[in-house]
From TrEMBL, chain A:
This is Methylmalonyl-CoA mutase family protein. CDD domains: MM_CoA_mut_B12_BD. The lineage of its organism: Bacteria, Thermotogati, Synergistota, Synergistia, Synergistales. SUPFAM superfamilies: Cobalamin (vitamin B12)-binding domain. Transmembrane segments: none annotated. It comes from the Bacteria.
From TrEMBL, chain B:
It comes from Acetomicrobium mobile (strain ATCC BAA-54 / DSM 13181 / JCM 12221 / NGA). Keywords: Cobalamin, Cobalt, Isomerase, Metal-binding. CDD domains: MM_CoA_mutase_ICM_like. Its cofactor is adenosylcob(III)alamin. This is methylmalonyl-CoA mutase. It comes from the Bacteria. Its EC number is 5.4.99.2. The keyword RNA-binding does not apply. InterPro entries: Cbl-dep_enz_cat, MeMalonylCoA_mutase_a/b_cat, MMCoA_mutase_a_cat. One of its GO terms (molecular function) is methylmalonyl-CoA mutase activity. Residues 37-553 form the Methylmalonyl-CoA mutase alpha/beta chain catalytic domain. It is an enzyme of class 5 (isomerase). NCBIfam families: acid_CoA_mut_N (TIGR00641). Belongs to the methylmalonyl-CoA mutase family.
Amino acid sequence: MEDKKIRVIVAKPGLDGHDRGAKVVARALRDAGMEVIYTGLRQTPEQIVATAIQEDADAIGLSILSGAHEHYFREVIRLLKERGADDIIVFGGGVIPDDDVPILKEMGVKAVFGPGTPTSEIIEWLQSAVQERRSRERV
Amino acid sequence: MFKEEELKKISETRLKYEEEVKKVTQKYPERKGTFSTCGGISVERLYTPENIKDLDYLEDLNFPGEYPYTRGVQPTMYRGRFWTMRQYAGYASAEESNERYKYLLQQGQTGLSVAFDLPTQIGYDSDHPMAQGEVGKVGVAIDSLEDMETLFDGIPLDKVSTSMTINAPASILLAMYIAVGEKQNVPIDKLSGTIQNDILKEYIARGTYIFPPKPSMRLITDIFEFCSKHVPKWNTISISGYHIREAGSTAVQEVAFTLADGIAYVEAAVKKGLDPNVFGRRLSFFFNSHNDFLEEIAKFRAARRLWAKIMKERFGVTHPDAQKLRFHTQTAGSTLTAQQPENNIIRVTIQALAAVLGGTQSLHTNSFDEALALPSEDSVRIALRTQQIIAYESGVTNTIDPLAGSYYLEWLTDEIERRAQEYISKIDEMGGMLVAIERGYVQQQIQDSAYAYQRAIEKGEQIVVGVNKFQIEEEGKSRKILRVDPSVAEKQIARLKALKERRDNVKVGDVLEEIRKAARDESQNLMPKILEAVKAYATLGEICNVLREEFGEYKESIIL
């Protein structure tokens, strides 16, 4: 089953309306052959986690530019754990100060992509992260 | 502008020049096969009188302050007074924002611009579950008149003009501002400022909508009507291309979609029976100033000329002030890089200069650290100094519209106007901007441009200095950045709770009921009811909840 397409949720949590980055990334992931579910704006962590489980997603990408990243990443990861779905890869991007990246990683966020990141970098990273996750599952 | 004979001579001489070019390029090819503006308009090697041979000075440019206002909306422009230097600011609590405003005024800023946090912009009080994690983050949290009183404490509202970036709940924040003015004994007709109040671009690009389009348009036209009568110096709307551009549009799309939004508002107000010669004078605009220096200058001039024509020819407006496109500009946030952030100071300078050469009425210059976090006090000061250096040192303010007559600039001004007009005609054919938005046409156009721009960067066709060229190692640099104290939310919620215990809750119930009744009756203007409600300390969330119950909520159509 090596060829099963990567399924990824791209989500905009909370009230932030800056969706250019999320949409560009979603489109780039789709063009790279992944199945992308873009949630649209104003998603609660509950909605995002429910969508991810329902869609059998490999990964969730959160885009936050409002400064509320700590809150939303924490909530999404907490809910994934609560539902026993914390094998889903969580990554994200937006306006996130460098100093906050270690805090997010500590929580379990696998990667944070700041402004100016080429989409190719995100694609490559996600492909290998999902591959690793799947090979772990098979063991 | 040029004599037939002269043009002929120029044409002939051009052929010689082109032969010369051919020789040179055979030996030394040009850097690229084709050149184009940031927005994708093809650019020739050289522009000459031939490119603008049909330009009619009086008809197409005319004098500053004269139709079609291509050269500026005032007869003296910056020789009379500089543009208003207006930095968008606000964070955390009303007290902290109040301090930042006083600091900015002390530093020579000439107008205020209030940033509200997202819960305020979307009509939630700070204690609402959806507000969690967002209180005080991207702006100041305002729940009731009490917060607004603190926000403007010690700032005389008859001495400053205040711009408020507020859209869906614009009437509520305007009402609060009027109420604060009353408490300071400033008569309502002496208040001056702007509310953004532009819901269409929220659906298209910015995302802080609450209600569906129809009742939203009613709230907007209610404000037009109320302010025409009572707050004559208030700009009732700031029709915004800024966010459309930030979402990834081209310069042409920015002009086209912004003016198409403007057309929709004028049509709605006319339908309500309002006179465009009156409310038209208080319409204002808000544009982006992006990287392509000359394209941006041409864009501002083209927008001014096109809007004047729309108001005159389409709506039969005769009052000159209602034909004039007055605008605020902000430099392009999306061009700021997190890499080598100091480079952003130079980007902002070029963009700000374009806005000034394009004849802006007010300007916000971005801080260089905004791709990293909320701007710090130091970076905000540099941003303001950038404007002051342009104003006082660069010399560009000595004469009006100094680039007029440039073959390239005039050609490009025409070209942008022509292409924007094509979009507007297409939107007209669809049935107007509301339909175009509903169908996702506008959003799709913008997204396609955004994606194309990103592809161009990744292919190296578009260079971003410090990002895909001239990179350096910058690991582990800890910067001094502004952080919002996490206790802000708790304090704000406690203050809200105390207010709700202290105020006359029976009265609050009554005024909210009045709003409900007015919401159901389209012949009533909602503004006076909202003003009564804020004076009784009904909260923003309470008022919006009543309107949500009556109007429903907008659901985004997801386009990818």
